[in-house]
What we know:
four-stranded antiparallel beta sheet; mainly beta
Amino acid sequence: xxxxxxxxxxxxxxxxxxxxxxxxxxxxxxxxxxxxxxxxxxxxxxxxxxxxxxxxxxxxxxxxxxxxxxxxxxxxxxxxxxxxxxxxxxxxxxxxxxxxxxxxxxxxxxxxxxxxxxxxxxxxxxxxxxxxxxxxxxxxxxxxxxxxxxxxxxxxxxxxxxxxxxxxxxxxxxxxxxxxxxxxxxxxxxxxxxxxxxxxxxxxxxxxxxxxxxxxxxxxxxxxxxxxxxxxxxxxxxxxxxxxxxxxxxxxxxxxxxxxxxxxxxxxxxxxxxxxxxxxxxxxxxxxxxxxxxxxxxxxxxxxxxxxxxxxxxxxxxxxxxxxxxxxxxxxxxxxxxxxxxxxxxxxxxxxxxxxxxxxxxxxxxxxxxxxxxxxxxxxxxxxxxxxxxxxxxxxxxxxxxxxxxxxxxxxxxxxxxxxxxxxxxxxxxxxxxxxxxxxxxxxxxxxxxxxxxxxxxxxxxxxxxxxxxxxxxxxxxxxxxxxxxxxxxxxxxxxxxxxxxxxxxxxxxxxxxxxxxxxxxxxxxxxxxxxxxxxxxxxxxxxxxxxxxxxxxxxxxxxxxxxxxxxxxxxxxxxxxxxxxxxxxxxxxxxxxxxxxxxxxxxxxxxxxxxxxxxxxxxxxxxxxxxxxx
Length: 631
C-alpha cells in the first residue's frame, strides 16, 4: 500500500507542477479523495457480497418454511434473526458507488434462480440456482481497471462483466425496502418490484436463546451450541408457551426439560468413535392460543485434540476485532470462533502464536485485553483455565511467540525472551537473550530453541546455555519427527536445510538445488516437515520439497491458478504432519480486502499438487497453521 501511495503521489505531483499554479492543499485533497474512493469501492464490494449471502438465506428460508423472529434496524442496515438460529445482515449502500440489480426469480419449476435486471442469469446455457444443495452463492467484485462490477458463479474462477459501472451518487443496495410487520416481513429488492415475503415467528416467540453478544467484528455468524464430549449445559428457551416437550434428541445425547428455569439440560456423548459429532435438538410446545410451535437447535460435540485436525489462529483486525481460533476437523467441518464458542469470551487483540504442551494450550496476543495477553486453555475442550493480563505482564514489549516446558512459559517479545512460572506467576527476563527474531520457537529435549539473526539461542531451565551459529539468517526452527532433532532453514545463497541435534548441537547441512526459504513479512517458519521431507514455498505460490534422506530438492507445482482471489500469502503455509496435505492461507489484500480469503488444501501424494479443499472467507489476518500432532 505504501508503494501504491508513493506512485500516486508522484503522479499527482507531476500533474500539479505542469499546471499554471501549484497548490499543496489541492494535491493532498486529490490524494485523500482517491483514498476515500478506494475505501468506498472496497466497502461496496464487501456490502454487496454480504447482501448476496442474505438474499440466498431469505430464499432458503422461504423454501424451508423458516420464519423470522425479529428484524433489528441499525445505523448500517438491518439484522434479521431466523427461527432456525441463523442470522443475516442487510447493508445499506455506499456513497459514490452503484450496485448491480442482482435478484432472485422463481422459475417455471418453482425453484429460485439468480437474475440480473429481472432476467435469469445463465452461464454456458445453465441457469444458476439460488437454493438447494446445488444452489450457488455468486461473488461480486469491482474490476480495478474498468471499474465495472463483475460476477463469478464458480467460486471466483471466472468473472463476467455485469454492465454496471461502480459510479454513483446516492449509494445503491440490493434491497430498496424492508417492511417489518406483525405477521410477516416484506423485503423489496433494488428493482422496486420484486418482493420476498417471509412469515414472522408466532407471537409466542418460542425459540432457543443464543448469545446476544457476538465476537467483535463477527457478522452472519452461524448459531449453534458447541459442547465438549461429556459436557452438561443448560440451553435456555424463550416464548409464551403453556407446555414444552422433547421432540428429537440426537443419538448418544441426553436432554431433560427444566420448566422452572425455562431451559433444557443437555449432556453430550461421553465418547465417540469420531472427534466430532452433531445433531438437531427439537422441542414442541403449545402456545396460549392452543397452536403447536416448534423450536430447534443444532448441537455439536468436539474434541480439539484430534491428531488429524488443524487449527488456524487469527490475529483479528487490530482496529475492529480480536484474535480468534478456527478449527478444521479431519472430515472438513469448520468451527470458526472456536474459543469464543467454548468460553463465551474472546482472546486478546492481535493473537500471534499458539503452543500445546501436554493437555494445555497457550495463546499469546500482542495487545492483550479481553482474556489477557497470555491464555491457558484445556487442549481437548479449549475451555480457559488461566489468564495473564497486561498489568501482570506489563514489562512485555509487543509479545509475539510462546513455548512451554513443564510449568514454565517462555515468551519472546521485541526486547528478548522472558520466563513465566505458570503456577507462582513469577515473571523474569532471560539474561543475554536479546536479538531474537519474530518467529516460532521449538521445544526438544526440554530445551527451547529460539531463532536469532544468524544463530539459534538455546534456553534451558530459564537460562541461555548455548548459541549455535549459522551461515546465514535463520528463517525457521521446527521440531523433527525424529526424537532429539530439529529442522532449521537458513537463507544462505543457496539456501540451507539443517538437521540439528538437540543434545550435542551437531549439524547435517544440505544445500537446496531449487527454491529458497525466505519469509517476507511472515512470523511463521519458512519450512514445515513430515518425516524426512521438508516443504517450503519461498513466499511464492510454488510448493517445493526437499527429501533429506536422498538429498534431493524438487518443485512440485504452482497452485496460484486454483484461487481466483489470490493476493497475499499471509504467514507461511505448512504441511500436515499426519495427512501430508499442504495448507495455504491467502488474503486478497489489505483494507477491507482481507475479508476475501482462502484456506486452500493440497494433496501432494501424486507429486503435483491437487486441491482437495478450499475454505473461503473464514480467516481474519491468519497468524498461521497449528497441528495438534506437531506438539
